[in-house]
Design goal:
Number of domains: 2
Number of strands: 3
Strand content: 15-25%
Family: Belongs to the phD/YefM antitoxin family.
InterPro entries: Antitoxin_Phd/YefM (IPR006442), YefM-like_sf (IPR036165)
Function: Antitoxin component of a type II toxin-antitoxin (TA) system.
Structural class: alpha+beta
Protein name: Antitoxin
Organism: Veillonella tobetsuensis
Order of helices and strands: EHEEHH
Length: 84
């Protein structure tokens, strides 16, 4: 379940940091009842970024296949992504 907090609660930095680390889920920050920011742990951010890179690579590979462009095999592709 997503956590939603008002902007004024950002003053409690240690509490927010603990909340992020406990759940690895983002915390949504609102201002005047509207979404304004998202706060997450560095670990969660890096995981999200890695997932997005893999998704982009898969999408590109599928596009290459559909357009008959000779690409890399999956093992090579994932090996290169792990190096980055």
């Amino acid at each position: 379940m997503p956590r939603i907090i008002p902007m004024k609660d950002l003053r409690n930095t240690n509490e927010i940091m603990d909340m992020c680390k406990e759940s690895n889920d983002p915390i949504f920050v609102t201002k005047n009842g509207y979404g304004e920011l998202v706060v997450m742990s560095m670990e969660a951010y890096e995981s999200l970024t890695r997932s997005n890179e893999i998704d982009k690579a898969i999408t590109q590979y599928e596009s290459d296949i559909a357009n008959h462009v000779h690409g890399k095999d999956a093992r090579t592709l994932f090996s290169e992504l792990k190096k980055e």
